Protein: Aminopeptidase
Organism: Pandoraea faecigallinarum
Amino acid sequence: MTSLPDFREASYGAPYIGLLPAGPRDAITDVPGVFVGHVTLADGPVQTGVTVVCPTPATAADTGAVSPDAQWDPFRTRIPAGAAVINGFGKSVGLMQIDELGVVEAPIALTNTFSVSHVVLGQLRAAIAANPEIGRGSPSLNPAVFECNDGYLNDMQAFSVTEAHYAQALANAASDFAQGAVGAGRGMSSFGLKGGIGSASRVVETAGATYAVGVLVLSNFGRASQLTIAGRHVGPVLDARLAQPEQSAAPERGSIIMLVATDAPLDARQLRRVATRTAAGLARTGSVYGHGSGDVALAFTTGYTMPHDAMGRVAPAALVPDAQLDPIFQATADATEQAILHALFAAESVLGRDAHVRRALADVLPDWATL
């Protein structure tokens, strides 16, 4: 029998996925103009938080700043975007208008299911502070808040996340950020293990230029028996080691939010196609998009912006031709798979409400590569 090749190592000891090169951080913030911030709440039965992905125009990042430009107003200078709902068992806010208009006009926030309304209020108050006419002389804001259910570890009924936590996560946004059991990922579970925040990036050459593609996931999906790591189906061994028959037999009730960023000039239709390709990377890890799983993807570009107040014609960007999108599709699939693995490999074991525990992959499957 031919032996499988040794794995190249990525961040956190995870195997490296694919042949495309990663950016210097192997994270979504390798895309110019993208910053990420967390607030983590870890106190007994409260295991949750907020993560904010702040997309700014790529030109604003050319200064080398490590945090978003305070003068940039996402309501006035909107970012092109496209969404794909792979399985719609979710309670996210903003998807309908993003699908219709093809732009995001607020930082993209992640949190637990019961905290969506508080984070929406935080987004509204921040936008109104910058634009006092919102909801009066100006149109209302379309918030962008996505969620997963962290109720196994976190007491969601405590409603611990507040508007102030969103504001702090936004203030914390920077190029370097933690992964694993942090921010919105603090209480999340994947494949019966500790899930959470994961990110990765790939660099592609297409249409005569070089672009970055980055992915950030809020990973909270999968049954233990399904887990596949870099092509190795280790799920049956994981299932046996966890020895949780009641959970093994339970139907899929997890979710995943997948955010894709690029600086390639793409329109909303093309970005929706890019968002759809996250499903390829998701499937490689063993997911079958179960009935009770909310699998949602959003792709955006920092390569150009759409002015909110345009009264005349707007010069279109020189878009990447459809026939040259395949490298971006490949990068999206590979970075999605890599980001999910980073979430698993970076996570620590967490004790939450009612003595519920999710163990880290590193504690349960340290020998995954030899199985």
Confidence is low (pLDDT under 50) at residues 1-5. Residues 11 and 60 are 28 Å apart (CA to CA).
